Amino acid sequence: MTRLKVNGVEEEIAVSTIAELLAARGVDPAARFLAVAVNGTVVRRAEWPNQTLAAGDAVEIVRPLSGG
Amino acid sequence: MQHLEDTETMTDTFSIAGTKLSSRLILGSAGYPNQQVMLDCLEASGAELVTVSIRRISLEGYAESLVDVLGGRCRLLPNTSGCVTARDAILTAELAREALDTNWVKLELIGDRETLYPDVEQLVHAADELVRKGFVVLPYCNEDPVSCQKLADVGCAAVMPLGSLIGSGMGIANPAAIELICSRSPVPVVLDAGVGTASDAVLALELGCDAVMVNTAIAKSHDPRRMAAAMKAAVEAGRLARLAGRIPKRSFAEPSSPQLGLVGS
Does any CB of chain A come closer than 8 Å to the CB of residue B94? Predict the structure, then answer.
């Protein structure tokens, strides 16, 4: 189990990469328009299967929505 | 005459960062009654550039959103709405670039949640950094020529001064300031915020703005599709009037009919 902060919420979750985190949350990693940042740095989509997550990491998973 | 006007409107384009835009209306995508109305408004408005926000996904599930549908129909302009620090705005812009594969960003940095006035100090700082990172930055900014000049100086591709408070529909509160900005700006000026109805958009173009950004005035009108069409006509009318040139204002009447040959004199 790894203690992560995902979109502002702290949780213990059994994942080691970004791709695994997305899959565990029911988010299709192939879905269009997704973007991920870890500790304030954007991680390119190609790196999602490789980039490992460490305890205490803050992960932001975002997408575009309507806006003005 | 009709032919001349059509030709003029079609060839009278403007450019942001080398990208030619023939519509002088930038459309916001928020707050419409439903997705179909938004898409109809996009068509009726003729807008080529549509703003979207960047938000955390709901971890309960990923549903198709408006953006999935909009993608192929227009150019998307992500914003950093809601950000109150340069750091958050820069990260939001970087996430937007990754999500949407665009280096364009409408930079919003809010200094006060009640009025949604920009925080100029943070805005200039964030704009400077984003330009250095290769972004095409369009900042939502105060309607003062000094702020606009500073933003142009750090390399912003356009400036987006506010007409009045976001969502207020109060129109252009300080037309003289907007006109001054337009006369001095080295980059395109896009009036942002405050437009309430078509005449506000006409005035923006008459004052010299290159384009107008509209969201709430269309989305929240009684008939959004009709207002979108009105805004399209408004920016065209305002631009034509700007090119034609308004007559000087005078304090006294000036008869328009000939003064010779009056009956009975």
Answer: yes
